[in-house]
Write a structure and sequence with these properties.
Strand 3, helix 3 and strand 4 form a beta-alpha-beta unit. Helix 2 runs parallel beside helix 3 and helix 5 runs parallel beside helix 12. The protein is α/β, with parallel strands linked by helices and 269 residues long.
């Protein structure tokens, strides 16, 4: 993913800095984030900078966030927008859905914001391809399907929450046998494989399934708290290795890039 330019319009300074930090960290530095505290300043920034996304609070000093997003929609139609508010109502939500790409009611989980941002600024070509696949029913069986093998119930829930608002079909396995059965029954675009699964090892399953996974083009992400497995799993044919504890921003970014990449594109991570 190339660097994306974001603008946060929020008059609560601590919240604005927290949002900016979460977006920068969650994108592994791929988001450049500017801050301002009112719509009037935002008008000037939008006209002099090329922003991919503007995230604005509803209630601002002077003109409102709705005024700002309406201006952006008229003048900068390609700039995507998200409206935040601590004063949600059906009327505000209806107005927001007409002029913005996303709507969040405070307080919200930073992870929800990150997932929404990643989805909104996904390259247009990828969004178009996804729509066409769904309409035609071609390639969708594998292209949007992810299998996660993780024996920690809490982590499985976190993964599920992180990815549930995306367009991916998520399958979860708590044991090696469950993952083996799912791999034999379905084709996956991505397989996230934890190495330590109780008394069993994800590396054994990778060895068993490596030929089939390579044949159907499944991309394998191996996961472990022990960094020494990195070289071993790469030699076994895994595409990526992530060391625990995993940043959910890193995971979401990697998955998005893997889903978007062309057949001959090499991703460095």
């Amino acid at each position: 993913m190339t660097t994306k330019n974001l603008l946060i319009v929020e008059d609560e300074h601590n919240l604005a800095r927290t949002l900016a930090q979460a977006l920068r960290l969650g994108s592994e530095g791929k988001f450049k984030v500017d801050l301002c505290e009112n719509a009037e300043e935002a008008f000037e920034l939008v006209e002099t900078n090329d922003y991919d996304l503007v995230i604005s609070d509803l209630r601002l000093p002077g003109q409102s966030g709705l005024d700002l997003l309406s201006f952006i929609k008229r003048k900068q139609g390609e700039t995507r927008t998200i409206l935040m508010t601590g004063f949600g109502s059906d009327e505000v939500e209806n107005q927001a859905t007409q002029i913005s790409d996303g709507y969040l009611t405070k307080p919200f989980d930073m992870l929800d914001l990150l997932v929404m941002v990643q989805k909104i600024i996904q390259p247009a070509g990828s969004r178009k391809a996804t729509v066409e696949e769904e309409a035609n029913g071609s390639g969708n069986a594998k292209a949007r399907r992810i299998l996660i093998m993780e024996d920690d119930v809490g982590l499985r829930r976190i993964y599920q929450k992180a990815l549930k608002k995306t367009e991916y079909e998520l399958h979860l396995a708590g044991t090696v046998q469950e993952a083996r059965e799912m791999l034999n029954e379905n084709e996956y675009e991505i397989f996230i494989c934890d190495i330590h699964m109780g008394r069993e090892r994800g590396t054994d399953l990778l060895t068993e399934q490596s030929d089939r996974l390579a044949k159907i083009g499944t991309q394998v992400i191996m996961v472990s708290a022990y960094g020494q497995y990195r070289t071993l799993t790469e030699e076994m044919g895994a595409d990526f290795f992530l060391e625990k504890p995993i940043s959910l921003g890193t995971l979401i970014t990697l998955i998005s890039r893997l889903m978007e990449k062309g057949e001959d594109e090499i991703i460095e991570f």
